[in-house]
Design goal:
- β10 (about 125-135) and β11 form a beta hairpin.
- The protein has one helix at about 10-15, and strands at about 35-40, 45-50, 60, 65-75, 75-80, 85-90, 95-100, 105-110, 115-120, 125-135, 135-145.
- The protein is built from one helix and eleven strands.
Length: about 150
């Protein structure tokens, strides 16, 4: 089956609404976000992530992969760079977001309950670039490689 980036949100939603199909039990780590790849084929991969209140990512991209994520439980806040600042968008359980290969964002659990999300990437992630926002300008902080950083 050939998929395209328009299918990613549908795939994420299908996995997010069927926790019985997840091959690993959900875990929460008080030190860092927990994640596990729960599906992969030649075209895309699916990740399960958990977020305790206060856990966040750095500003990052997905190394040229398109993606989507759906909040399975709890809530997350996605921030994107707009006009030199960050614009937040709150996503509650059942909500999702699809993005293209040049998307830079930060995702956080700014709520007071744990959250679970499902993420899909096309093609599978090979690298992610982390950024700092310096006086309205994105600056590369690190390039992380699959198999090394995660």
């Amino acid at each position: 089956m050939t998929i395209n980036s328009a299918d990613l949100l549908t795939i994420a939603r299908r996995h997010a609404t069927d926790p019985a199909s997840w091959p690993v039990p959900v875990r929460f780590d008080p030190v860092q976000r927990w994640y596990a790849r729960i599906a992969r084929d030649d075209e895309h991969e699916v990740w399960l992530l958990t977020w305790l209140p206060g856990q966040t990512t750095d500003l990052h991209d997905h190394g040229g992969s398109s993606g989507a994520f759906v909040v399975a439980s709890g809530g997350l806040t996605e921030e994107i760079v707009v006009g030199g600042g960050l614009r937040p968008h709150v996503l509650r359980a059942g909500s999702g977001r699809q993005f293209g290969p040049r998307h830079v964002h930060r995702v956080s659990n700014t709520g007071d309950v744990p959250a679970v999300s499902v993420h899909v990437y096309l093609p599978a992630l090979l690298r992610m670039t982390r950024y700092e926002l310096d006086r309205g300008t994105l600056r590369v902080a690190e390039v992380a490689e699959a198999g090394v950083a995660w």
